[in-house]
Write a structure and sequence with these properties.
The complex is a heterodimer. By secondary structure, chain A is mainly alpha-helical. Helices cover 70% and strands 0% of the residues of chain A. Chain A starts with a helix and ends in a 6-residue tail after the last helix. In chain A, 43% of the residues are buried. Chain B is an all-alpha fold. Helix content of chain B is 75%, strand content 0%. Chain B is globular and about 60 Å long. Classes of the chains: A mainly alpha, B mainly alpha. At the A-B interface, helix 2 and helix 9 of A face helix 2 and helix 8 of B.
Chain lengths: 267, 265
Amino acid sequence: MVDAVRAYCLLARTWTRAAAQYPASLAMLTLSQLVITGMDAVVILIVFQHTSSYAGFSLPEVMFLYGTSGVSFAIANSTIGTVDQLGQHIRAGTFDAILLRPVPALVQVAADQFSPRRLGKLVQAVVVLWVALATLDVDWTASRIALVPVMIVSGVFIFGAIWVLGATYQFFAVEAAEAMNAATYGGNFVTQYPLSILSRDAIRALTWVIPLAFVNWLPALYILDQPDPLGLPTPVQFASPLVALVLCLIAALVWRAGVRRYRSTGS
Amino acid sequence: MRLYLAVARASVRRHVTYRAAAFAGAFANIVFGLIRAYVLIALFQTKPEIGGYDVAAAVTFCFLTQGLIGPIAVFSGGLPEVAQRFRSGDIALDLYRPADFQGWLLATDLGRAVPDFCYRSIPPLLAGALVFELRLPDSPALWLAVPVTAVLAVVVSFALRYLVMLAATLLHDERGVSSVATILALFFSGIMIPLTLFPAWLRPIAELSPWAATIQVPADIFLGRYHGFALVAVLAGQVIWALALLGLGRVLTARVRRRVVVQGG
């Protein structure tokens, strides 16, 4: 594990140095990432131009959901997001080379093309979260304060696991890479909003099938003191770390099964 | 003309091959369509009508626009394949052809859009109709206008992406130029949120922009917001944008032709 982390850091540093060779380009790409991903925040602002209460949530409350989801997603995206390029590696035959090297394949694929430009999203998400925390009308008890970092870290691991699971799917269907955007980018998008806007069945699916509700929705219900549309017991709102752990274990097992099943294209 | 038809046909055949990838893209579009629809439904629960849209129009808008992402190539920035050819030098071949450079690329792009309309526009609409009650065109004239506006939207989008490609070539910076272009296209086309919901001061600017002619205008025509003379007028608006942008592209092509340096060997 320590070796894997060290290898990851080494690869990430190498790619960062490569990207830093073109500082102007890197700065511009980071900025454009910031603006493109920040447009989702503009949409929320436009929505609140027409109403002051959205599905029972105020603007700072929705910004809190947006910020927590965004921070978790941006960290997961920049550290492990390039696993969705797995299909490219398989098609080009470079995955064979990856398997030969004495570094875990997942580490190599995740660190491949690592670029600080993805942190552009992190910057805008942190800003939105900062504003939300400053303007929220919440009784900040110790448990509420403690839950914020817990949910963000859990969210990173939940998003990361979903990314790996989605990428593993490409071992079985190389061309279907884009469908997985629905779970990753779609997962980030849907968790920016109160899940109560969805139908009951959709909320259940996002709680028990693809557990995106544990990224921020369920813990946020506790922090914001909002009613749960599903009426789940309160301990569920603290279960995010457990869910993240289980999901990561599943992702690791599925990834291994995928690698074992992998057959080189041979061309 | 026969030449360009042949080019377009070859392009159709080439892109039909990527059917599985197109359906995978359509799946992602459907999921985003569903989420965006629920986002707007929650908003319309606070007010029954905003900017001329009711909830049925807003929901239909979400699936229409998600379906247009493929054919309009919203996320592509410029023409990445052509920019790549400038970099590799293959562009010399394209510029030597006894065919019009811009016309050749337009035919290719229209050909690309045909399978995209089949595989990426229709599935989101069908999926949306399964879950919600969608607002369909309610007159024969509208059903006739929909394919016309869709093709015009592709032409305007191509003309814009062609300009982006030329700008990238002139400035020797593909990524920067195309990311600025993507930002403008995402924001002003209506793909993020209907332009009708924009604040009053921004809405007229956005609605008159060429990006609106690629997504917002075709969606509004589908939704039956224009009839009679107004319908003809918005279609004419699309034609004007198409001609103006293609014309600008032609002028700039002549300049690029003189400036392009092909590094041989």
